[in-house]
């Protein structure tokens, strides 16, 4: 098992890159089943920064015409949620009347998803679906359905493949979990 040190914390390998790719393959296949042949142009909404790697991998596998829009939301500080979601950057394009697929790195408490749904309704999206690479079911407190979940994980703090610890670790190819023993 490989270990990485980010500031004061040590992380150990949790999900290797190949398993992440397989999970994205399966998720893209489901989205293709639902959207292939559509006559509208759906929008992929990349929620920066965490979702950047997942969005890039997912998008390459989609077999219908789609647009890419980004926004930036923040709620985490260190290894925990502050409970308050801040929109640090607005939507990069107009989504009025369009079907939107929210592409998230991870759904934890669900606060971010609630906020995103509100933002999209405010901008008059025709419909919005949620697609997330990771989901912590034990932490989720909302009743908004998650349409596409690539992988479920326990309530541990993870980094890598776009996810950070105080902005470090996003470049790691695998996903790592906090090593409590270290
Ligand atoms: P929620 O609003 O669902 O509680 O949290 C969503 C956001 O919190 C995610 O988009 C992500 O930025 C951050 N987050 C939640 N869990 C983790 C985690 O285990 N590791 C990292 N690095 N970020 C997380
Ligand atoms: Mg995120």
TrEMBL record:
Top-level division of the source organism's lineage: Bacteria
Enzyme class, spelled out: transferase
E.C. no: 2.4.2.8
Pathway assigned to this chain's UniProt record: Purine metabolism; IMP biosynthesis via salvage pathway; IMP from hypoxanthine: step 1/1
An example Gene Ontology biological process: guanine salvage
Keywords (A to Z) from UniProt: Cytoplasm, Glycosyltransferase, Magnesium, Metal-binding, Nucleotide-binding, Purine salvage, Transferase
GO cellular component, one term: cytosol
MF terms in GO: hypoxanthine phosphoribosyltransferase activity; magnesium ion binding; nucleotide binding
Record-linked InterPro entries: HGPRT, Hxn_phspho_trans, PRTase-like, PRTase_dom
Catalytic activity, as annotated: IMP + diphosphate = hypoxanthine + 5-phospho-alpha-D-ribose 1-diphosphate; GMP + diphosphate = guanine + 5-phospho-alpha-D-ribose 1-diphosphate
Coiled-coil annotated spans: none
Keyword Phosphoprotein: no
Keyword set includes Nucleotide-binding: yes
UniProt record similarity statement: Belongs to the purine/pyrimidine phosphoribosyltransferase family.
PANTHER family listed in its UniProt record: HYPOXANTHINE PHOSPHORIBOSYLTRANSFERASE, HYPOXANTHINE-GUANINE PHOSPHORIBOSYLTRANSFERASE
NCBIfam families: HGPRTase
Protein name, as recorded: Hypoxanthine phosphoribosyltransferase
Organism field: Candidatus Cryptobacteroides merdavium
